[in-house]
Every structure is written in C-alpha cells, then in structure tokens.
Amino acid sequence: MTDLRNYVSLIKKSGELKNIKTPVSTKYEIAGVTAKLDGSFAVLFENIKGSNFKLVTNLVGTRKRFSQAIGSTEEGIHEKIISAIKKAKKPQISSSGKFMENQSRKINSLPIVTHFEKESGPFITSSIVYVKNPETGKQNSSFHRMMPIDDKNFSIRMVEGRHLHRCFLDAKNHGEDLKVAITIGVHPAISIAGAYQAEWGYDEIDIANSLLGGKLSLFQLPFTKLKVPSKTEIVMEGKILQDKTHPEWMVEMLQTYDHKRNQPVFELEKLYFRNNPIFHDVLSGFSEHRLLMGMPIESKLNGELKKAFPQTRRVSMSNGGCNWLHTVVQIKKNKETDAKKIIKKTFQLHRSLKQVIVVDEDIEPSNADAVEYALATRFQADKDLIIFTKVRGSSLDPSSDQKRLQTAKMGLDATKPLNKRPEGFEIAKIPKINKINLENYFK
Predict the structure, then answer these.
(1) Structure confidence at residue 107 (pLDDT)
(2) Using one digit for the tens of pLDDT, what is the confidence trace for 378-403?
(3) What pLDDT, in 10s, does the model give residues 86-120?
(4) What is the DSSP string of 32-59?
(5) Is 159 helix (H, G, I), strand (E, B) or coil?
(6) Are 234 and 279 in contact (CB under 8 A)?
(7) Angle value at C-alpha 277, between 263 and 44, nearest 5 degrees
(8) Residue-level pLDDT at 199
(9) What is the DSSP letter of 214?
C-alpha cells in the first residue's frame, strides 16, 4: 500500500474522491475546478484534452485525508510524524520499477497545468527532486516547481541555502552539471516527507518509509544512479545545467505572485511512466499546498515546544496565516513569564513565522473566533505585546523587505493574568447541553 493508486482507492472507498469524466483543459479549467472545491474532495480527472494521462488533485486537502495518507487519526497526525522522524529507516531496494513500462525523451505527453492568468507559464507543482549530497553521499528529496521551456527543458525553482541549491552550487563550483531525478505521482506520505525540511545530510525518503510502515521500496535509475520509489507514476532523470538560467515567476502559498527570477534549467535525459499513468497537480496557495507545507512544520513545533516547555498543550498553524506565517500555541500557564518565553522559542523554531499568539487550555487554538475572544478578554497591548523589528522572515511575504529578507514580528500573550480573580475569565457553561437534540423540540 505504498503507491498513489492504493491511496486513491482508499479515499474513494471513504467517499473523499470525485471522478470527473468530462473532457477538461489543462489551461485554467483544472485549476478552476480544484479552487472551487478548495480541498473538500480529492478529484480524479479522467479525460484530459491533449493527453492520455489521468490527473489527480487535492489529495491531502483536508486534515482527514492528510491523516489517511499517513495511517493515523486527525488527532494523531503530529505524534505519527514526530515518531516517523525519530524512527526514520532506509527503504528496501527493488530490482524493478513500475514506471519503466514506458519511456520517452520528450515531455509533450505530460498534462502540465496552467493555473493562474499572470504566471509565466504552466508549472509542474508536485515534482519531488532527488539528489546526492556531495558531503555525505546520501540522497536528499525536496519539492521544487518546474516550468517547461521546450520539449526537454524546464526552469526549476530553488530556494537559496536549501539542500538542492547547496548541491547545485557544489557541482557548479566543480565545473559540473548536477544529476537529479524527479518524481511525479507518489503516495502522499512520500510528498509529506518531501515537504519536511530535514537537517543537512538526512534523507526525507527514510521518513516516508517510516510513515508507510517500512514497506516502501526504491529502484535505482540507469542514468543518474539515484534511487526513487519503485511504484512512482512518472519519473524524469537528467541534469541541472551549471551555466544556464531562464526567467519565471509563480503564485506562492499566500496566493500572491512572487517576483521575476532567473532560475537554473533542468535538461531531460529520459522520461519514464507507468501504463495508464496518473499525474498529480497541486494548486498553489490553496488547501493541499498549504497543508503539505504547513503540517510538517506544525508537527515540528508541537514536538519541539512540548520538549522545551512541558506546559505546552497544542500548536496550530492558522488558516488565515496560510498555515505558514501565523501560529497559535495553547498552554497550561504556570508563571506570568511562560507565554513570552514560548513566543521567543516559537519564532526561533520556524523563522518564517510573523505572528505567535499564546492562549490558555480553555481556548481552542484552531478556532479563529475563540482566539479572537481570548485577545478581546485577556490581552492588554501595553503589557502583552512583544514586537521584533528587522529580523529574518519569509521570502513569500510581499510586505517585508524583500532585498534584505527582513520583517517585523509580533507575539501576543492572550492568556489569563494570574494576578486577577480567575472567575472573571471563566467561560460560562450550560449543564447537559450536549445531550439536547433540537429535533425533539420541533416536531
């Protein structure tokens, strides 16, 4: 149960998948349908104009499907991810790869989607790139969006300082192109692990194997000698050219356009794909994109904050903050200084954060109304607000100093003051209200 098809069958049985057999265009139409649903259902498009491939989207667009992907309950997502990181283990090696059933040297058959009117072109948004770490010899896997330039070249988006970019610079400094492999259409547990930012030298595919119960297998590719999941739908191998760039710009997690960049170029050596292949598309800035990127960070914050501060109960990356820029931390407050210490630590753990709100145990951190209620009744701006200026922030935030990557951040202590009477903050309850069924009163 380690490939995309197994997962699609699973969510179909649970009523989480919609099949669309009407012919659809890759230009805006698939993106439009996906946006209209905004995560509520996964969608399998079975009839793509100009392509024989099927296309699936919204695979992990809700916490329910996210939990299904990693074999946990919604409440157990963080525990499962934290455990998988701690117990990461290498996958077994297979003597065959299902994707070797078909081969091509051109990308024309791929149903690459054009999502937004002002993007520089269509993008592959689910592509996971595999590369060998030049220092450790181990592999690394990470998400990188790719824009087709012609029938064998793509621009490839890389964030400076991250693993792939470091490997690329090492190859370039040695006067070499960088050999890489790329997968499209994997079990979402592999995508979730690929979105996690492991430390330098660690391979995210080991985390994926742990999430999948140790049942993942890899196959070694002939050109790059890199190992990719053996049941992947679509695989490309080739090299990122050391001396060539191409302009592109795209929509990011915040549903805003990033600025124009000259990015390195990937040159295809060989394209492989399974019989009746399924292409995976992720709509940038919508629920699947945000959960794929944000949930591993939410798991990290839950694990690290509880380790440093046992009074931490739960951490939630807010939807309004795009599951990336804002978070709410629920604690059992023991001292007046608890909240401010936790705010500082939270910013240290995820530097893209722009706002941290700390609330009490009686406030549901994922409920925006409840959090605002805590701010309205327990927060005083002259005492409970911390502001950090000119600090490193997210490159995605258009309001920040984009040249220096600096921003301002704020932490808000929305917990009950310990020096005031506790009854004044108690939320009134009606006994046995959960046992009342309104249908019994309106017959």
Answers:
(1) 93
(2) 999 999 999 999 999 888 888 998 88
(3) 999 999 999 999 999 999 999 999 999 999 999 99
(4) HHHHHHTTSSEEEE--BTT-S-EEEE-T
(5) coil
(6) yes
(7) 90
(8) 76
(9) T
Q: Is the dihedral of CA 388, 392, 395, 400 positive or negative?
A: positive
Torsion of CA 152, 153, 157, 160, to 10 degrees: 120
Task: Please give the domain boundaries of the chain with CATH numbers for all domains.
Answer: 4-287 (2.30.110.10), 309-425 (3.40.1670.10)
**Which single residue is written with the structure tokens 């805003």?**
256
Spatial separation of the C-alpha atoms in residues 149 and 155, rounded to whole Å: 7
Tokens of 343: 């705010």
Q: List beta partners, residue 27.
A: 114
Cβ count near 94 (within 10 Å):
16
**To 10 degrees, what angle do helices 63-70 and 4-13 make?**
130
- Cα separation, 116 vs 35, in Å, equals 11
Cβ atoms of 155 and 264 within 8 Å: the answer is yes
Q: CB atoms < 10 A from the CB of 128, how many?
A: 26
> At residue 332, what is the residue type?
K
Give Cβ neighbours of residue 140 (< 8 Å, ≥ 6 apart). 130, 131, 132, 133, 163, 164, 167, 198, 202, 203, 204
The span from the CA of 335 to the CA of 299, in Å, is 25
- pLDDT attached to residue 365: 97
CB of 107 closer than 8 Å to CB of 95: no
**What single-letter amino acid sits at 379?**
F
Q: First and final CA of the chain: distance in angstroms? A: 48
Q: Is the distance from CB of 220 to CB of 99 less than 8 angstroms?
A: no
> Rounded CA gap, 281 and 420, in Å?
53
Distance (Å, rounded) from C-alpha 244 to C-alpha 369?
Answer: 50
Residue 55 CA to chain centroid, in angstroms? Answer: 19
State how far the Cα of 281 lies from the Cα of 2, in Å rounded to an integer: 19
CA distance 211 to 181: 22
DSSP label at residue 191: H
CA-closest candidate to residue 274, choices 194, 146, 183: 183
Alpha-carbon span 299 to 82, nearest angstrom: 7
pTM: 0.92
Structure tokens at 44: 């399998």
Paired strand residues for 155: 147, 265
- Name which of 16, 31, 244 is nearest 150 in CA terms: 244
Contact between 122 and 51 (Cβ < 8 Å): no
Q: Which residues of the chain are modeled with pLDDT < 50?
A: none
How many whole angstroms from its chain centre is CA 21?
Answer: 28
Enter the tokens of residue 163.
């693993």
